[in-house]
Amino acid sequence: MISQKFRIRRKRTSFRAIVLNNSPRKVAILGGALIFLFIVPSVIDRTPSVIPTVSQPVEISATSNEETASIFEPFPFPEGLREQVTFWKKIFTTYTTRQAVIHDDWYVNVVYEVIDLDDPEYSSEKEWKTAIKKATKKYETLLGGMAERWETPHKLSATEQQIHDLFKDLPASSSFKKKDAKNRVRVQIGQADVFKAGIIRAGQFLPEMKRIFSERDLPEKLVYLPLIESAFNPSARSHVGAAGMWQFMKSTGKQFNLTINGTIDERKDPFRATRAAADLLAHNYNSTASWPMAITAYNFGLQGIKNAAKDVGSEDIVKIIEKYKGSRFGFASRNFYVEFLTAVDVCLRYAEFFGEIELRKPLKLAQIQLSDYISSATLEKYTELPKEMLQELNPALHSSVFRKGGLLPKQYALNVPASQKEQFEKRYAAIPKSLKYAYLPTKARHKVKKGQTLSGIAQRYGTPVKRLMSVNGIKDARRVRVGQVLKIPGGYVSLAKRSPKASSSSPAPSKSGQTHRVRKGETLITIAQKYNSSVKAITSANGIDNPRKIKADQVLAIPDQKTRSAPVKTVEHRVKKGQTLSMIARLHHTSVKAIRQANDIKNPRRIRIGQRLVIPKG
């Protein structure tokens, strides 16, 4: 028999639910921690425990239809989803991560058994996990044996009759109920403790998140979606690479203007990721005109949900859930909108489920754009903001920038407490220039070959072993492996004077000592405008023959202020759905030609939603 393992339930994002089946996946994440669970199959001879089915009316029945509509407005709550919402409400508010609910994958309100870790029968977590595995096998065996006798209940044993009764009041034919029932046995770990902690944590973020959604004329209740994605944990990460509170994949994050590189991952910044999520949800809604479809698309993909609606001939979410049989439209996608509705209800009425709990105080942050590369130790010394606080308020920054030898990136919008913004700016200005750097990064990577040592590699690139270890997070210099790719640190140029160890491969700084590191998508035109310079001046200063052939991460010397032309005023515009260059030009009282030149646009028809354009003014 294939060894069975717990796995992450949601293909793309979920960190919270664990499923027991024959999947080859083996990583589950609870509360941000990775858990590897390996269960040995065996046979169980216990009869099912007498557990009330989740199909019984629970909390939701206490509200009237008017109250229910008010809770979920403007999101439709079809009667056909009531049982599913009831099930998930029990998972979110009653059962904890110490309880395993064994249920039917399709009829979620059919619950066979709940196995409690706190039961005296289990002396350890290992025994509990083994019991879950045994119970799952037991119900698969029972259901498999019942299939041929489903229509003759009098021939069933007492245990089988008990299982049969769980299905008797459900819709659909008995043939569907018995068909593959043994393959629909699923384990859902409770989440009440995780979600309670998540709601407490959400207190820091919700006011600003609501402001962001309101600013875009989007329903504020969408801010409760991260409860089911990450329990409002900015550091959450799934085994498929989704990260942050909103669980963006890299490609989607970049599509919605999040910076993701070796130093910065804005998926982990709660408010920057919220802006991206708001834009994504707005795009989904604009494309579907249906909130159930737009929200399901957050999990299943926009084209996926469009294909599903086309296949079943309806945009009714209940019909899509019941009738669409696409191979990718699994348990997670079928239940995503239902879980969202449940999260809204739980978040709005959390005191009814968890009692009076104290939420964390809202974060009040200000952003200060760093004018230089600078170490966290320097910031801590001169601004008196502890490094630990800076790291906590800026989860988008890789931990390496806070280590010895690391630098916070130039032009990064650093989060600081709003109450200390003015003081921070004054103290930052007073930091000696010798401690501020124009960073000249050597974008080198070295793949370790057989026989190479860290000291030998450091000597080859002219960098200290300790710094090479720091940049790569290596604790033991002896533990480098063949094939490992190392980042090779570059040199620094102080604003006060150039370091003799600065990279000779980088361009010499201008008389002003100012340099610019090219970002993906930038052109010489936009860079010139940024520094009130000209393309000609920059190409001349850097020996560039073809102004179109600059590449990301290239470091350019910026000509001295005296040689620059008069300032060119610009504003930034983010392209919205339906906008054209001519419309944008009229909006900003400029010309299409000026916008094309400022953004190096060759084809005026090829602009995309969310694209940021530099708009020349005056």
From TrEMBL:
<protein>
    <recommendedName>
        <fullName>LysM domain-containing protein</fullName>
    </recommendedName>
</protein>
<dbReference type="Pfam" id="PF01464">
    <property type="entry name" value="SLT"/>
</dbReference>
<dbReference type="InterPro" id="IPR000189">
    <property type="entry name" value="Transglyc_AS"/>
</dbReference>
<feature type="domain" description="LysM">
    <location>
        <begin position="514"/>
        <end position="558"/>
    </location>
</feature>
<feature type="region of interest" description="Disordered">
    <location>
        <begin position="496"/>
        <end position="520"/>
    </location>
</feature>
<dbReference type="GO" id="GO:0000270">
    <property type="term" value="P:peptidoglycan metabolic process"/>
</dbReference>
<dbReference type="InterPro" id="IPR036779">
    <property type="entry name" value="LysM_dom_sf"/>
</dbReference>
<dbReference type="GO" id="GO:0016020">
    <property type="term" value="C:membrane"/>
</dbReference>
<feature type="domain" description="LysM">
    <location>
        <begin position="444"/>
        <end position="488"/>
    </location>
</feature>
<comment type="similarity">
    <text>Belongs to the transglycosylase Slt family.</text>
</comment>
<dbReference type="Pfam" id="PF01476">
    <property type="entry name" value="LysM"/>
</dbReference>
<dbReference type="InterPro" id="IPR023346">
    <property type="entry name" value="Lysozyme-like_dom_sf"/>
</dbReference>
<feature type="compositionally biased region" description="Low complexity">
    <location>
        <begin position="496"/>
        <end position="512"/>
    </location>
</feature>
<dbReference type="GO" id="GO:0008933">
    <property type="term" value="F:peptidoglycan lytic transglycosylase activity"/>
</dbReference>
<dbReference type="InterPro" id="IPR008258">
    <property type="entry name" value="Transglycosylase_SLT_dom_1"/>
</dbReference>
<dbReference type="InterPro" id="IPR018392">
    <property type="entry name" value="LysM"/>
</dbReference>
<feature type="domain" description="LysM">
    <location>
        <begin position="571"/>
        <end position="615"/>
    </location>
</feature>
